[in-house]
Design brief:
Layout (H helix, E strand, L loop, with lengths): L6 E5 L9 H10 L6 E5 L2 H10 L6 E4 L16 H7 L3 E4 L2 H6 L4 H13 L3 E6 L3 H5 L3 H12 L10 E4 L13 H19 L8 E4 L7 H5 L6 E4 L6 H9 L2
Parallel strand pairs: 1-2, 1-8, 2-3, 3-4, 4-5, 5-6, 6-7, 7-8
Helix pairs in contact: 1-10, 5-7, 7-8
Bound molecules: phosphoenolpyruvate.
The site of phosphoenolpyruvate has 13 residues, from strand 8.
Length: about 250
């Protein structure tokens, strides 16, 4: 299996109105597709407009969550099939903000991943420890358990990535040391190889948590880092482009 190009994905979270599409258009106009795959995950209501605006460019569009069922009586929810129908190619699943605020367990995340695969979306599955878990020395156990529990067998041979996002680094300006990032990414790689064999060797493992133009080069060149999931710094085209160019 060939190793995919690094993936740099922007997670806009609950930010962005129609006027913000200009930022995505600016990214798409300046990005060099040879270096990396680039995706932007806006709020669900912008997916259709963004995918239309970026048609013919190399920038992919993704959702930030999806329900585990394809349709039904789930007021307020959006299914993976609906995201794909609106033009999305990927979807972030198991983000720590959803694990914390909506009590999403590994089992729920795994069901959502199955739904994403059914819909033809490429999942970005997030894992990561809290500060208390790191301080207790449990990081590798927690992350390994999340990887095993959140990735269903249906992913075998399918395109997907895992994002290591220490919860304490998200939106905080704090980042782990490069040694800490490499230690966790190595543990994730070992787990992926055990679960998926040869395919497990090529699955991109993204780092996420306070990636910004000033630290992107160091993080993106760390061993086993196959890209980044970027929150706050993906909202402004010039910052996001600077991170992409740091590859
Ligand atoms: C995220 O929420 O996925 C994230 C990485 O956020 P930030 O870059 O703002 O820390």
């Amino acid at each position: 299996m060939t190793t995919p190009r690094p993936l740099i994905a922007g997670n806009w979270k609950m930010n962005g109105l129609a006027a913000s599409l200009d930022e995505a258009i600016e990214v798409a106009g300046s990005v060099r597709p040879v270096d990396a795959r680039v995706a932007i995950c806006p709020p669900a209501v912008l997916i259709h407009r963004m995918s239309e605006a970026l048609k013919g460019t190399s920038v992919l569009v993704g959702g930030q969550d999806a329900h585990w069922d394809d349709r039904g009586a789930f007021t307020g929810d959006v299914s993976a099939e609906m995201l794909a129908d609106a033009g999305a190619q990927m979807v972030i699943l198991g983000h720590s903000e959803r694990r914390a605020a909506y009590r999403e367990t590994d089992e729920i995340v795994a069901r959502k991943v199955e739904a994403a695969v059914r819909a033809g979306l490429e999942p970005i599955v997030c894992v990561g420890e809290t500060l208390a878990e790191r301080e207790a020395g449990d990081t590798l156990d927690i992350v390994t358990r999340q990887v095993r529990g959140s990735l269903p067998p249906v992913l075998a041979g399918k395109p997907f990535s895992v994002a290591y996002e220490p919860v304490w680094a998200i939106g905080s300006g704090l980042t782990p040391t490069i040694d800490q990032i490499e230690e966790v990414h190595r543990a994730i790689r070992d787990t992926l190889e055990k679960m998926f064999g040869d395919h497990g060797r090529t699955i991109p493992i993204l780092y996420g948590g306070s990636v910004k133009p000033s630290n992107a080069a160091e993080i993106l060149h760390a061993s086993e880092v196959g890209g980044a999931l970027v929150g706050g710094a993906s909202l402004k085209a010039q910052d996001f482009l600077a991170i992409i160019r740091a590859l």
